[in-house]
Structure formats: C-alpha cells, structure tokens
C-alpha cells in the first residue's frame, strides 16, 4: 500500500534539499575563502537573513525571471518544433488517496498557423490538426471527426478550440507566440530553487513561480533553454492535486511538410459538430441518424 503522507513528506524533503544545495553552491562560489573570510560570510548570512521576506510574502528573483525569459525566447525564435509531452494528473480514488492518470502526446508545430497533436492516454486517443485553413479534431476509436475554420494563428486557434470544443493542451504555453507574456501575467512569486541533473538526461535550472491561480515548478535545460518538466498545483483545488508534465524528444526547427498537418483517415469518419464534449452525445446521435 502506498503511504501518501510519507511521499508528501519525502517530496518536501527533496524541495528542502534543493534549497540546501543552492545555498551550498552560493557559498562555494564565494571568491573569498579561509578563516579570514568567516566573519564576512557570517555578516553576509546575517544580512540575507534580515532581508529574507516573511513566509507567505511574494518573492521575486530576477534570476528566475531571466531563466523564464531565456526559455521563452528559445521557443519564440523556433520556426518549427516537435516534442513529446507525457502528462500525469491526479484524481481522488474511492479510498481518498489520489490515483494517477496519464496521457502522452506527440506534438509538431510550425509557426504561425500549423499544429498537430496525437494523444494516447488512459482515456480515448485523440488527434488534432491545424493546417492553416481548418481545425480538425479526430477520434480514431469512435471514428468521429469535427472540422471548423481555422483562425490565422496558433494562439487564436488554441483559444477557439478551448472556447468552442473544450479542447485544451497542458503544453499550450510552449506553443504560444510569446510564452513569457503568458507566464508572467499576474505573477506574484518567482524564485530559483536550484539545479538538477536527474531530469531529461541533462542539467536543468529549477524555477518556481506562482500567481493567483497556480503554483508551478519548472525544470529548464541549462544549455538548450528548453522546458523539460513542470509540476503544478492549483490554488482553488482544495485537494491540492498535482499535475506533472515531462517534455522530451525535442527537435528545434525540424523539416516539416504541409501534409504533416492533415490526415486522410478523417475523410471517411462520421462528421460531428465542432462543439463542447457535453454536446457530443446528442451530436453523435444526430450524425448517426443521417
């Protein structure tokens, strides 16, 4: 049986460990060493302690903002991107402790108006295509397809897909024209947690940030500036369920073709309205009766 409280305590210890490592690195980087430097170190530590904000108060570290900006610029300047997103999210079980569910999406995008997302998960598989002219949502198992006119940009397409059909991708921030503008909106806290060498097979800088809606921890490649992992807890969720996304198999500026953003399989599928899932049963019944 999984001891959830133990895992929570262990996670807290790991986070505390990051802070300790960061502190040790800061001391190691101090150019002054030896006993002669000890009083200065003590004085500096005392000064930092006095300047430290009280618990719960917002913290803004410029280094954290710089890391987020560098990641955003790396994504913004890419003409095309492909990556794999593995998402794990929690949902309460009948016993109380949460169960974990997963999806894995293969993502290909080309600025400014083309996107393909192929998703397998613990629920039904789904496919999404944006070819610059139309948006297509295809359900292979049910053989349903919904098509609508496409907005001129990926940003607008993501908004319309969510508004009209409830289609949401947890990696949407990665695809936006300006990821930092979206991440920084309403930001109340941002600080550097430390450095990790266990995520994505590379060294990452770990940043935590929060606004009125969510608290996030983000692992950013130290060299390539690409997002490698993200964990989030939403403030309005009384259960504090955790959402985790790992991003891998990155390709920046891969060669793509127009045919990559369409599918022939949808041509023979049953057409249903591009509408919210709540309307799906009625729409499907109407489609079957035709």
Q: Give the low-pLDDT segments.
A: 1-53
Mean of residue pLDDT values: 81
Oligomer: single chain
User: What radius of gyration results from the CA coordinates?
Assistant: 23 Å
Write the element-wise H/E pattern from the N-terminal end onward. HHHEEEEEEHHHEEEEEEH
Strand order of the largest sheet: 7-8-9-10-11-1-2-3-4-5-6-12
End-to-end CA span: 51 Å
How would you describe what is shown here?
There is one protein chain. This protein is α+β, with helices and mostly antiparallel strands and 290 residues long. It has helices at 4-28, 38-51, 62-76, 154-165, 172-175, 179-184, 280-289, and strands at residues 80-92, 98-110, 114-121, 126-131, 134-139, 144-149, 189-199, 202-210, 214-221, 227-234, 242-252, 270-271. A 12-stranded mixed β-sheet has the order 7-8-9-10-11-1-2-3-4-5-6-12. The longest helix is centred in the first third of the chain and has 25 residues, at 4-28. 21% of the residues are buried. It is built from 7 helices and 12 strands. The termini are far apart.
